[in-house]
Amino acid sequence: MDGQWFRRFADPEPDALRLICFPHAGGAASAYQPLSRRLRPHVEVRAVQYPGRQDRRLETPVADIGELAAVVARKLQDDETAAPFAFFGHSMGALAAYETARILQERGGPSPRRLFLSARGAPGPQRSPHDVLPDDDAILAAVRRLGGTGVTLLDDPELVAMVLPALRADYAALAAYSWAPREPLHTPVTVLCGDADPVVSVQEASQWRAFTRAETEVRVFPGGHFYVDQHLDDVAEVVLRGVRSTSAAWAGNDACHD
């Protein structure tokens, strides 16, 4: 798998299912290192490293979610070491995960066996006001409002200067994201959200049900937008259970076709 676009935090077990993880706006692949530790050795986390951050900070960020998803989809289709995989996307990453899954389905290629969509309402004809921000001050204020373990880094002007290009690009991508009714996915979906998220209500998150013909599970945790930080073990358990149940179902289907 392309080492430029995907980060692995541990050597996988031979039969481990891959979890492709998509970071939030301004986030990087390293955000999924804690989840990787909780899931190994049963699940191999491969986190997408968007251009314009960490070791790719000198590259131009991608300010278009559809373009980003198309690149990730192509990388997955080109992978000669392909293994069964699922997607996990948090916040903006949920949109990127959904769009990548949609592209893969339309191309008839390998598709995720389950989609975990976290801290993001389902898209619709109207853009969320939280995605359309006029300037850097508004973006930084929005990031502070969302909280998370890294929000105190915004008190350091040098660090702010480093993360702003990626934040600008990601919020530009969110503001420009255009949704239109499309063929529902055939992939099971697990929706995860915090009950006190300031920008995503449980009702908005639950509307992902309409985006798949397969079953949908909604899991609500105490906490805000970055509820995962406080409930990492519980989230890992939801992911592991979802991956195992989906893998068992696929194995059964494969056996029926032998």
From TrEMBL:
The keyword ATP-binding belongs to this UniProt entry's keyword annotation: no
Pfam hit, one: Thioesterase
Record key words, sorted: Hydrolase
Gene3D superfamilies in UniProt: alpha/beta hydrolase
Keyword Hydrolase: yes
SUPFAM superfamilies, per the entry: alpha/beta-Hydrolases
Domain (Thioesterase TesA-like) ranges: 20-243
InterPro entries documented for this protein: AB_hydrolase_fold, TEII, TesA-like, Thioesterase
SMART domains listed in its UniProt record: PKS_TE
Protein family per UniProt: Belongs to the thioesterase family.
Protein name according to UniProt: Thioesterase II family protein
Species: Streptomyces massasporeus
